[in-house]
Each structure stands twice: as structure tokens, then as C-alpha cells.
Specification:
By secondary structure, this protein is mainly alpha-helical. The protein has five helices and no strands. It is elongated, with a radius of gyration of 19 Å.
């Protein structure tokens, strides 16, 4: 097998054993890749971790601000800023991977990444959620082979 041809048969076998963290890491590693396709697992597991970290850190922030924040202790105000900084860094770190996996997910159902612009409308956001739930197209399309083994 030449260097230019990548054997993807093992990729399909290994996907069954992937954990949520493996799927998240795949999106992080492919953060600049908007070509190709992403299956539902890859997209939804990335989104799950993204939202879980965001919600947990926001809940901690609100807890610190409203329950502990009434005291004027300087350590608590530093803690609030550390949590704000963490949330900002998390959003900065995951914004581009979220966009790229969303585009690849749309490619997987044979739609252009431009459909992601629907996010900026209320009805379009709901339409995108439905689109992200659609199963992969089992055939090769203009963005390549299916994101996962359809024959499983």
C-alpha cells in the first residue's frame, strides 16, 4: 500500500471501542478540517462534552457569586475571575472545533456547510438540530466516503 492511500478499514473497527473522550479528542485534532464527513456520534459526543463543561462551570460560577460572593474576601473575588477566565478559555478553545464538526456533520447528510448560517434564525436553529439528528448517508457523496461503517 502506498503512502498516499490510507487504510480506513481499521478505523471502522476501532470506532466501536471509542469512548466519549475519544470522540471529543477526534474533533479537537480535526479542528481545522472542514472537508470530509462526521457521523452523529462524533458530533453529539463533542457537543455533549462542550455543553457539560460549560453548564458545570456556569453553575459553579453562579454558586460562588450568589452564595459565597456576599463576603468581601479577596480570594473569592479572585476565584470568580478564575472561573470567568476558564469559561472564556473553554469557549475560545472549542469554538472552531464546534464549527468544523458541525460543517462535517452537514456534509455527512449531503448538505453544504453554508446551511450552518441557519443558526442565526430561530426557526433555522431548530431545523439545524433536526438536520444534525439525521442518519448518515450510506453512499459516497461529494465530501467523501461515509463517516462510519454503515454495515455495522
Amino acid at each position: 500500500m502506498s503512502e498516499n492511500n490510507i487504510d480506513v478499514s481499521n478505523q471502522y473497527d476501532n470506532e466501536e471501542n471509542n469512548t466519549i473522550i475519544d470522540w471529543f479528542n477526534r474533533c479537537i485534532k480535526n479542528y481545522l478540517t472542514i472537508e470530509g464527513r462526521a457521523g452523529r456520534k462524533e458530533f453529539w459526543y463533542f457537543l455533549l462534552i462542550f455543553l457539560a463543561v460549560l453548564v458545570i462551570s456556569t453553575v459553579v460560577l453562579f454558586y460562588v457569586v450568589y452564595n459565597i460572593g456576599s463576603s468581601s474576601h479577596p480570594v473569592l473575588s479572585i476565584l470568580v475571575w478564575v472561573i470567568y477566565l476558564f469559561i472564556f478559555c473553554w469557549l475560545l478553545f472549542t469554538f472552531i472545533p464546534l464549527i468544523s464538526v458541525s460543517i462535517r456533520r452537514l456534509h455527512d447528510i449531503n448538505l453544504s456547510g453554508w446551511w450552518l448560517l441557519l443558526y442565526f434564525t430561530v426557526i433555522g436553529s431548530l431545523a439545524l438540530i433536526i438536520m444534525f439528528c439525521i442518519d448518515s448517508k450510506p453512499t459516497e457523496n461529494r465530501w467523501g466516503k461515509p463517516a462510519h461503517n454503515i454495515n455495522q
